[in-house]
Design goal:
The chain is 39% helix and 14% strand. With 294 residues, the protein is α/β, with parallel strands linked by helices. The protein folds into 2 domains: 205 residues, Divalent-metal-dependent TIM barrel enzymes (TIM Barrel); 87 residues, no CATH class. Strands 1-2-3-4-5-6-7-8 form an 8-stranded parallel barrel, surrounded by 4 helices. Helix 5 runs parallel beside helix 6. The longest helix has 21 residues.
Length: 294
């Protein structure tokens, strides 16, 4: 790790998820208030800008003038949707995001891989394990990487226990199939913690970070509920499953913080799944766990 990496750590930010083109100033002001220096842009702003790309320069200028770097786009679409028309639309949207990414000053477009569930992009489906579903995923990623190559952008995949990309061997298979620098990973270890992995979450995290240390492009901060990252819970206790806000679950955060500080201090760090009013406390917790002085 070099001196410039130390000086840049931590590059804290959040998702820009609640404001569109016309009220973006309110969201930008919130980022400034909390000294956030980077943003991962998602809907509704992202969807509006895909529809009206001529407005991208003015939006990017506003973020830049506020000292906020747009470090990635939150495309997040279901690549294996059960509805063929929806799947086609999702892939076309992500292709547009990849084409436009350089205009935002970033190369990164993030997406989940999705699920074959007939009515949800996040619930599990038995069909997710079928060879046909995997073929659909490979086909989608192949098409998206062609766009990324032409545009100079990067497709960053984010796995999740209920989606088709749910295990490390799935990641390995994709990286073998597509040995391209245009394919990267989101650093979100929380999403892979099934209920069975909860007792060994620390060992899983260590292996995940070791195996893909150089493939990560953006880091997320949240947590894992006692019954793992999948939704639902037992006996109606939905609060016992999922990925809640940072430092409210069972995930071994200390090892993850050490990795970010010592191995990949260059990564932008994005808070996720927390209400605005909890952000200040989350920043304090992060700095304490990272061993940073105030």
């Amino acid at each position: 790790m070099n001196q410039s990496s130390w000086r840049s750590f931590p590059r804290l930010g959040a998702f820009f998820f609640t404001h569109g083109i016309e009220n973006r100033a309110t969201g930008i002001e919130f980022f400034k208030k909390h000294n956030l220096v980077c943003a991962q842009i998602g809907d509704p702003l992202m969807k509006e800008l895909v529809a009206s790309p001529a407005r991208i320069p003015e939006v990017v200028r506003d973020f830049h003038d506020a000292g906020i770097e747009i470090i990635g786009l939150a495309g997040y679409r279901n690549l294996v949707a059960a509805d063929p028309a929806a799947r086609k639309e999702n892939i076309a949207y992500l292709q547009k995001c990849l084409e436009l990414a350089p205009e935002f000053g970033t190369a990164i477009v993030a997406t989940e891989t999705g699920t074959r569930h007939p009515s949800s992009d996040w619930d599990p489906s038995l069909d997710n394990t079928s060879p046909q579903a995997w073929d659909l995923l490979v086909d989608a990623i192949g098409s998206l990487l062609q766009t990324a190559e032409k545009s100079g952008s990067v497709l960053a995949l984010e796995g999740y226990v209920n989606n088709i990309l749910s295990r490390l061997d799935h990641i390995d298979a994709l990286l073998r199939t597509f040995p391209s620098p245009r394919l990267a990973l989101m650093l979100d270890p929380y999403n892979y913690i099934t209920r069975d992995l909860v007792p060994v979450a620390d060992l899983f995290c260590e292996e995940f970070l070791r195996r893909y240390a150089d493939r990560f492009v953006i880091a997320h901060l949240k947590d894992v509920a006692p019954l793992g990252a999948g939704g639902g819970g037992d006996d109606g206790r939905a609060d016992l499953a999922g990925t809640p806000e940072f430092c409210t679950g069972i995930f071994p955060q200390q090892a993850y913080m050490r990795f970010l500080r010592d191995r990949r201090p260059d990564l932008p760090i994005i808070f996720e799944h927390l209400p605005d009013e909890h952000l200040a406390d989350a920043i304090v917790k992060f700095r304490c766990l990272s061993g940073l002085a105030f």
